[in-house]
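@channel sequence for tomorrow's demo:
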Amino acid sequence: MSRLIRNLILVASLPPLLATLPACASTPAQRGLMVFQQVCAACHGMDHVDYGDMAAFGLSPDAIRSWAADQQIPNGTDDNGDPKTRPATPADPILSPYPNEAVGRLANHGLLPPDLSRLAMTLPGGAEQIRRILLSYAPTPAGVKLDDGRYYNTALKWKHIGMPPPLQDGMLTYPDGTKATTQQMATDVSAFLNDVAHPHAAERRRVGLYVLAYLALMALLTFVLQRRIWKSRP
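structure tokens (generated this afternoon):
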């Protein structure tokens, strides 16, 4: 019975041991965070995502605090009724860079840049469609007339979009040495937005793996125990 006892002890200690294993890092999503910071954040916000949530992408607490502190968010009004702002903290959401909707529309030919928090979840086609849009800008064909502030894009059924092409080869330098081509950056930021839109997906997969491993081991020990009981019967 000593072996059985050792096995039972192993089962009891399994969850803490598994909990110490690091989560798998998503390198494309981490690079995508860099694309968002340096490109997308100039026009877009993520109202349902806090700066502190970026720790899930490997951003250090100091880097998060520094990024947040560089952003100003609304903070009521002063004694004269004028709006006040304050530096953001890690607990604040990543708001749009525009102070209000009217300013956002004024800066973008009447169109308001969409919030990116859940775009990969709500846009038909998800993250792959985001990637396709970023890579489908093309010169306007002869005979096609677009309104001011519109750009030809073959990924959309109406063939135009209000966002100018945001990506250009070599506009960023990735710390890991990956070449920042337009295709690479589109892939990376799409992966980042997909993870942002599904914030607990990795954790659910990890917990599911732990549960399956635990149940499989319990089933094995139950089978072994049953065999021992039946062998011991006269």
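heads up for whoever presents: The radius of gyration is 25 Å.
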